[in-house]
Design goal:
This protein is an all-alpha fold. It has helices at about 15-25, 40-55, 60-90, 95-105, 115-125, 140-145, 150-160, 160-170, 180-200, 205-215, 225-230, 255-260, 270-275, 280, 290-300, 320-325, and strands spanning about 5-10, 240, 285, 310. α2 packs antiparallel against α3, α3 (about 60-90) crosses α5 and α3 packs across α10. The N and C termini lie far apart (about 40 Å).
Length: about 350
């Protein structure tokens, strides 16, 4: 039996070329570039809502905590994670430091400090899409082999996906230094907020926040997003968009091809990219249901963690310190100077 493996390619990622084509054909797309400061208002509101629900659940039965985390908390936490993503690309404010600070605020109910670490490796995901040595979104070969096509192991891995994506995969990228002052602030604030909730309001409130994070980035209809983005559903296509109703609750996170093509367009204007250049996106395969994607991935043995395109790693061009010093520049769209 042939040993399972990723889909190896040598051609460059499609996003830079498509961006250039669309920009030449529709120069008005550049008018969509910019910032959406009102995202900060949404951030404060959702953070306040999460903490309010957690406090209201103090001394509540475990099943009520579980159901609330699944039905409400997961959507709030996922929305906050999308806001962290916006801050990563500096799409809320002009100043990088303000975006970092807002990302840390959005991370407060999540307990697990992720805002700054995500920032440091996600920007490389855009520049070095599908290069295992630089792209932390690519599963490790051992991880993919262990999960295999077992429905149980796929579901188990997705349940703990917050730890897989936030700890296990980034640890594989030895060239990236994830420890920096902003990361320390992120860790102190997130852990501090979580333990304060535990100390003052008890275990029910604390577990609501933790479970909300697990469901938002894991075994939940929202978890279909992680499969939708880059797992192969059509041969040769490595990035996929989602055009379903949950985009309204997730700050248009489903417009993934559009986002990879134009990183400088904030969430509020991403649908306009597709409207300006429909012939570039309507002909690509896309999804309309995250739930369908999730169930198909788990129960169809054809889909595994190997169902990803990978390309050769480029040579290291700078030191480990580059991750915290220069990846901010990647978020400026084509201004990639690593």
């Amino acid at each position: 039996m042939e040993k399972p493996d990723f889909i190896h390619v040598t051609y460059p990622q499609p996003h830079f070329g498509r961006r250039e084509e669309i920009s030449k054909k529709y120069p008005e797309v550049k008018k969509l570039f910019g910032h959406t400061p009102s995202t900060a208002i949404w951030t404060i509101g959702i953070v306040a809502l999460q903490f309010s629900i957690a406090i209201a659940l103090q001394n509540t039965a475990w099943w009520m905590v579980l159901l609330t985390a699944w039905g409400v908390g997961a959507f709030c936490e996922h929305a906050l994670f999308v806001i962290i993503h916006e801050c990563t690309h500096n799409l809320v404010f002009k100043r990088i430091s303000c975006n970092k600070a807002l990302g840390i605020i959005a991370n407060l109910p999540g307990f697990f400090p992720a805002a700054i670490g995500f920032r440091n490796y996600h920007l490389l995901h855009h520049r070095d899409l599908a290069e295992p040595g630089w792209d932390a979104d690519i599963p490790g070969a051992k991880e993919a082999a262990w999960v295999g096509n077992s429905a149980f192991r796929k579901a188990l891995s997705l349940f703990f996906f917050s730890a897989v994506q936030g700890i296990i995969r980034p640890a594989r990228l030895k060239k990236i230094n994830l420890l920096e002052p902003w990361g320390v602030i992120n860790g102190i604030s997130s852990f501090g907020a979580g333990f304060l909730i535990l100390y003052v309001f008890g275990w029910s409130s604390f577990w609501y926040l933790v479970l909300s994070c697990f469901f938002a980035i894991g075994l939940h209809p929202l978890g279909g997003r992680w499969i939708q983005e880059h797992y192969i559903f059509r041969p040769g296509q490595e990035t996929y968009s989602y055009y379903g109703p949950l985009n309204k609750l997730c700050f248009n996170m489903g417009y993934h091809n559009e986002h990879h093509d134009f990183m400088r367009v904030p969430w509020s204007r991403l649908p306009k990219v597709r409207k300006i250049a429909p012939e570039y996106y309507d002909n690509l395969f896309y999804h309309t249901s995250w739930t369908k994607v999730l169930l198909q991935f788990i129960f169809n043995p054809h889909f595994t963690f190997f169902s990803r395109i990978v390309r050769p790693n480029h040579e290291e061009k700078t030191s480990k310190k580059m991750a915290t010093r220069e990846t901010d520049e990647i978020s400026e769209g084509l201004g990639i100077r690593l």
